[in-house]
Structure formats: C-alpha cells, structure tokens
C-alpha cells in the first residue's frame, strides 16, 4: 500500500499504512482541520483507521489540530520529550533565523498574524517516546535530530524518510533548507546523519514535493558554505 498525502495550504500530512490502519505524520494548521477530514472522507478513510499520530516538531503548521485529531481518532501520539513543553504552551519557539533575505517579509507578516500562524491548542496528554522505537514491529524507526527546531524527529519507513521541516522543497525552500532555521550548524550535522542512514531513497517533507535522497550531498555542500542568517 502506498503512502497517502493530504495537502492543504502548502502543508503535507502523510498517512503511512501499517498492518492495521495508518500512522499519520503531522496535522496542519488548526484552520485546515475541516478540509483535512473532508479530504480523508473523500479517500474513504474513517478517522478511527488512524492508529498513531507522529509529530515531527512542535510548530503550528504541524501540530495545529493535533489535540482534536487525537480526540477524534483515538490514536496514540508519538512525540519526543524535547517537544513536550512547546506543545503544552501551544506556541512556536519564536527565536529562530530565516534562511534568506526575501523571506524576511513573510516572516514579518507571520509575526503580524501570530495567532493564526504560530499558535495552536495546547497538547498535554501522554505520548510514546520515538526513541523507544514504538513502531519497530512495523519496520518503522525514528531518529531525534535538530536544526529546524531544537527537536526535529524523522521517521523511516522502508526507503522513505518523513522529515517534517528538517528539509523543505518547492516554494520558499533554500536548496532544501526550510524557511526558519533554529541552528544552521545543527541542521547541517543532522543532514549528514540522514545521509548516513541506510536505505533511504526518497524524502517526504512537510512542505513541497518528495525528492530523491541523492540531492543531499549537493545541499550539504551549499549549506556548509553559507554565511550568516537573518535573525527573525
Ligand atoms: Zn516547522
């Protein structure tokens, strides 16, 4: 069974098939919730088929309707300890850099619309620790990295890597880097770790289209050379 992608407002939510049901990767902004359930219904998937929700990181475009999705599906949350306080606060970490000067405008706009773009209903319930490899019996493994935020978790299912915003493709991406970068040096180190993970052929980002892992070495070289970033 193939991975199902549901995209709204330039945010990808993935449904990875398990032996029974699905593991959902991230949600979307909270404003996208209605659209998401409609698109899911159009694919003939009922919410109770979602058995796990894996959160790559705490940002509002990934955890936007996490709280109500957990209630609606009865799924178990897979989220790292490093995201717990941010999830409980329901707000993005604002201390971050942006990856190119033109994005400064977008950054300023997102600050102006802070409630819509950076806040979400807090999530405080129990979660499974990805470092405990809760889906190992399904052939799915997790790795805790950092760079886009202080805690970016990636999930490997066969030759596919679900990376949240540790990488980005398409509009706004800067040679596979996301718009917001918490720590460029950590990001490059994490990318090198991904490069060493065996068997990955395709990377599925939170924004933009999937891309081949073969582009990583070029992107790492570019970002090793890049100078100072702009503080948001
Ligand atoms: Zn993000």
- CATH class term: Alpha Beta
Count of structural domains: 1
Ions, cofactors and other ligands present here are: zinc ion
Q: Give the low-confidence spans.
A: none
The N- to C-terminal Cα distance equals: 41 Å
Give the helix proportion (percent range).
25-40%
Question: How does this structure look, described?
Answer:
The chain is an alpha+beta fold. It has a single domain (4-231), classed as Metallo-beta-lactamase, Chain A, CATH 3.60.15. The protein has helices at 33-42, 60-63, 66-73, 84-89, 103-112, 114-118, 184-196, 216-225; strands at residues 4-8, 11-17, 22-25, 50-54, 76-78, 97-98, 140-145, 152-157, 160-164, 180-181, 202-205, 211-212, 230-231. Helix 7 (184-196) packs antiparallel against helix 8. Bound molecules: zinc ion. The site of zinc ion has 5 residues, from loops.
Any chance you could write out the topology, listing elements then pairs?
Elements: E1 4-8, E2 11-17, E3 22-25, H1 33-42, E4 50-54, H2 60-63, H3 66-73, E5 76-78, H4 84-89, E6 97-98, H5 103-112, H6 114-118, E7 140-145, E8 152-157, E9 160-164, E10 180-181, H7 184-196, E11 202-205, E12 211-212, H8 216-225, E13 230-231
Parallel strand pairs: 3-4, 4-5, 9-11
Antiparallel strand pairs: 1-2, 2-3, 6-10, 6-13, 7-8, 8-9, 11-12
The structure holds zinc ion.
The site of zinc ion has 5 residues, from loops.
């Amino acid at each position: 069974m193939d991975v199902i992608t549901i995209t709204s407002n330039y945010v990808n939510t993935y449904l990875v098939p398990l032996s029974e049901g699905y593991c959902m990767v991230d949600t979307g902004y909270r404003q996208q919730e209605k659209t998401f359930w409609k698109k899911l219904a159009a694919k003939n998937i009922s919410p109770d088929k979602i058995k796990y929700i894996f959160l790559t990181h705490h940002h509002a475009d990934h955890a936007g309707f996490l709280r109500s999705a957990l209630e609606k599906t009865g799924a178990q949350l897979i989220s790292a300890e490093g995201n717990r306080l941010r999830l409980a606060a329901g707000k993005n970490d604002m201390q971050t850099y942006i990856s190119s000067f033109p994005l400064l405008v977008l950054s300023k706009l997102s600050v102006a619309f802070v409630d819509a773009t950076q806040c979400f209903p807090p999530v405080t319930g129990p979660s499974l620790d990805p470092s405990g490899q809760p889906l190992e019996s399904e052939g799915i493994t997790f790795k805790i990295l950092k760079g886009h935020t202080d805690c970016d978790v990636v999930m490997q299912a066969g030759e596919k890597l679900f990376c949240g915003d540790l990488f980005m493709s398409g509009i706004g991406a800067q040679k596979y880097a996301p718009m917001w970068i918490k720590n460029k040096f950590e990001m490059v180190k994490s990318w090198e770790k991904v490069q060493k993970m065996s068997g990955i052929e395709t990377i599925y980002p939170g924004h933009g289209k999937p891309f081949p892992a073969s582009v990583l070495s070029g992107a790492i070289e570019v970002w090793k050379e890049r100078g100072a970033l702009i503080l948001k």
